[in-house]
Write a structure and sequence with these properties.
Layout (H helix, E strand, L loop, with lengths): L7 E6 L5 H11 L2 E7 L2 H8 L5 E5 L5 H10 L2 E4 L6 H11 L2 E4 L5 H4 L2 H6 L3 E3 L8 H15 L3 E13 L16 H7 L4 E5 L2 E5 L9 E5 L3 E7 L5 H5 L7 E8 L3 H11 L15 H9 L7 H9 L6 H9 L14 H12 L8 E12 L5 E11 L7 H18 L7 E3 L4 H13 L5 E6 L1
Parallel strand pairs: 1-2, 1-4, 2-3, 4-5, 5-6, 6-15, 7-12
Antiparallel strand pairs: 7-13, 8-9, 10-11, 11-12, 13-14, 14-16
Helix pairs in contact: 1-15, 3-4, 7-16, 8-14, 10-13, 11-12, 15-16
């Protein structure tokens, strides 16, 4: 680990949609210098915004020498790059005695660096964003408190989603993009695994959106829920071996799952390159997928192909998206998934001044030695700032920024590869988030 210096040096890799709150929070601390490095240097310059303790630099992450020079000069690196680059950055951090923070899931390759990081006295803190991140921290706070009281968790259900604020929910999909549309679409191909009333349930990726239901959220009404990846890894991670129900899900506005089920059925989630798509219109692509002519009966023929009425809401949504139009379908690379993502990004952006919304809810049933049971609900509803930072950006990047400051000031002293499930991480981070009004409100009911 690097020796103690008066002004710590922070390296931020990437200047995407969520980076600004992190950069501004750290620069406002006044106890560090910060380099923001991005392929598009103008984005990094916007983040620094002339702050005397900040510098913006261009970086092509494929240039190993350039990347290594930046990592070598830093006390801590924050990788906001695509997750495929994290291990590359981590290996350079090991070489040069630099701590690492990411908001991404820990990969097996990252986990394999644990012993080397401990040996060098380094902390590689991952999954310190929103989901994963605030979800871990707010859940573990409750789980640890229940266990301290001698109780056990019988049921744990956790759902999270980024959605338009109610006043901005004005398109047929009930969704707008505050982060990568390609990432949102690709997540729709994930298989799922969870436990419900002691029953082990596995869902193939192709059937993901067919498995959905409505859930009441206080203050918002009913939202749609569908399963999120492998919930069963949290049995060991959270110490929930006693739980009869263990489920993690994603929130969307009603109608999303029905529409995406049919988009999946058409084949739009295929990300293999198809050179023959070049020069095609959206209508021609849709007609090809449905094996029907691209003529004036396209809508009704696609509806019949999907087993839907021609006037169904799903067909109306596909038409609104432009999938029956004569607009060009060109993307680079030419894949069906990228065509879909490009259309969604074009049709579903946030307009200037509109707010997004984050909803994160944990529902527990806990049993105690005196025979009593409690329902415990933890609910975070956070809104973006009009003409300012989105809620997605704040809730993803501020936990990471807070953790970086705690590491640099010696308040988190852990070494090795970690996620924020330990009280020495989650308690100070949650306390600082609460000061920013990012707070999970807890309610308890005995039954």
């Amino acid at each position: 680990m690097k020796g103690c210096v008066e002004m710590k040096k922070v390296l931020v890799l990437g200047a995407g949609l969520v980076a600004r709150p992190l950069v501004r929070y750290l620069l406002d601390q006044g106890n560090l210098t910060l380099v923001a490095a991005s392929r598009t240097v103008s984005k990094a310059e916007t983040l620094i915004d002339g702050h005397p303790n900040g510098r913006a630099l261009p970086l092509n992450v494929k240039n190993q020498d350039e990347l290594e020079k930046l990592v070598k000069e830093a006390d801590i690196a924050i990788s906001l790059l695509p997750y495929i680059h994290h291990v590359q950055v981590a290996e350079l951090c090991l070489r040069h005695g630099t701590h690492l923070v990411t908001t991404s899931y820990v990969s097996p390759a990252m986990k394999a660096l644990d012993a080397q990081a401990r040996q060098k006295g380094l902390l590689f803190l991952n999954e310190i964003g929103l989901d994963p991140g605030i979800d871990h921290m707010s859940a573990m706070k409750i789980i640890d408190n229940v266990k301290k009281s001698g109780g056990s968790i019988l049921s744990f259900e956790s759902c999270c989603g980024g959605l338009p604020a109610p006043e901005a929910n004005d398109n047929p999909f009930g969704y707008k993009f505050s982060w990568s549309p390609r990432g949102v679409v690709m997540a729709g191909r994930n298989a799922a695994h969870f436990r419900k009333n002691k029953q082990d349930i596995r869902i193939e990726g192709k059937d993901l959106f067919k498995n959905n239901w409505l859930k009441e959220v206080k203050g918002l009404g009913k939202l749609e829920v569908y399963p999120n990846r492998d919930s069963m890894i949290y049995e060991e991670l959270y110490g929930l071996q006693s739980a009869e129900t263990l489920f993690r899900g994603t929130y969307r506005n009603p109608g999303w799952c029905e529409t995406l089920t049919n988009i999946v059925a058409l084949g739009f989630l295929d990300d293999s390159e198809k050179p023959d798509l070049k020069g095609k219109t959206l209508a021609q692509v849709t007609a090809f997928l449905a094996s029907v002519p691209a003529d004036n009966r396209l809508k009704s023929n696609v509806a019949a192909h999907l087993g839907l009425p021609a006037d169904s809401k799903v067909i109306s949504r596909l038409e609104w998206l432009g999938l029956f139009s004569d607009e060009p379908a060109d993307t680079d690379p030419p894949t069906l998934l990228d065509i879909l993502a490009a259309r969604m990004l074009k049709k579903m952006p946030y307009r200037e001044g509109e707010r997004d919304m984050i909803v994160l809810q944990h529902d527990f049933i806990a049993s105690f030695p005196n025979g009593k049971k409690k329902k415990i609900c933890s609910l975070l509803i956070d809104y973006g700032i009009p003409h300012g930072d989105s809620s997605m950006a704040r809730t993803v990047s501020l936990p990471a920024a807070i953790a970086v400051n705690l590491i640099l000031t010696g308040k988190i002293k852990l070494t090795g590869v970690h996620i924020p499930v330990l009280p020495e991480i989650y308690l100070p981070v949650l306390d600082e988030l609460e000061k920013m009004n990012i707070v999970c409100k807890e309610t308890e009911t005995e039954f």
